[in-house]
TrEMBL record:
Key words of the record: Coiled coil
Protein name (database record): UTRO protein
InterPro entries in the cross-refs: Spectrin/alpha-actinin, Spectrin_repeat
Keyword Transmembrane among record annotations: no
Coiled-coil ranges from the UniProt annotation: 3-64, 208-242
Source organism: Chionis minor
Encoding gene (name): Utrn_1
Length: 254
């Protein structure tokens, strides 16, 4: 009777493993929204816990069959063969569910990381847009133009590492058919805004550099003119002080 019960327990265990494999490993999942992906991650975590909890039951079956084999070798030998099959299938099921759970957790982590990088770059784009707007309607002063140019250039020196991560993470998820529509939409919007603002910022940078160069050249010309006028004023003052007749002065002084 004990052998019959153990044989029944082995059959039930094998049936449960077959159902678990069909439910958790053979279903075709399509992750079209973050909610679906998150639910799948949580489901696989529960599946992993559920399967691992059966380890106690498997151990009890193993111990009982070993004990029976010492008392009734003939019956125990047959059950031991069936037990080995169940143990092998159980270990395989554990490994596969662990693997799928790990994969889904990695995918979810990849999605969260992508969102974080997008948030970082969006903050940078907002800052860049603000700096570009600050270059409009500047006072016609050298210091103001120079400060605006330096401020814009400091933002443009932003490293490209984050954008590389966004591209690679997004492509990895899209290639796996995971959240592909949502990610494609997000990347398209981000790239379009990045290209538009970058081109605008570089154009403003070039314009400010040209404006600054022109203002510096104008300032230099005014400085030379002021120096010449000051020298002329000094000469004229000396002529007046010495009561020199106008016709005795050099022609430029006249």
């Amino acid at each position: 009777e004990k052998a019959v019960n153990l044989k029944k327990d082995l059959a039930e265990m094998q049936e449960w493993m077959t159902q678990a494999e069909e439910e958790y490993l053979e279903k075709d999942f399509e992750y079209k929204s973050p909610e679906e992906l998150e639910n799948a991650v949580e489901e696989m975590k529960r599946a992993k816990e559920d399967v691992l909890q059966k380890e106690v039951r498997v151990k009890i079956l193993k111990d009982n069959i070993k004990m029976l084999a010492t008392k009734v070798p003939s019956s125990g030998q047959d059950l031991a063969t069936e037990l080995n099959v169940v143990l092998e299938n159980y270990q395989l099921l554990c490994n596969r569910i662990r693997g799928k759970c790990h994969t889904l957790e990695e995918v979810w982590s990849c999605w969260i990381e992508l969102l974080q990088y997008l948030d970082l770059e969006t903050v940078w784009l907002n800052n860049l847009e603000e700096r570009v707007q600050m270059t409009e309607n500047l006072p016609d002063k050298l210091d103001a133009v120079n400060d605006a140019l330096e401020s814009l250039e400091s933002v443009l020196r932003h490293p490209a590492d984050n954008r590389t991560q966004i591209r690679e993470l997004g492509q990895t998820l899209i290639d796996g058919g995971i959240l592909d529509d949502i990610i494609s939409e997000k990347l398209e919007a981000f790239n379009a805004r990045y290209e538009e603002l970058s081109h605008l910022a570089v154009s403003r940078q070039i314009a400010l550099e040209q404006q600054l160069q022109t203002m510096r050249e104008t300032d230099h010309m005014l400085q030379v003119l002021q120096e010449n006028l000051a020298e002329l004023d000094r000469q004229l003052t000396s002529y007046l002080t010495d009561r020199v007749d106008a016709f005795q002065m050099p022609q430029e002084a006249q």
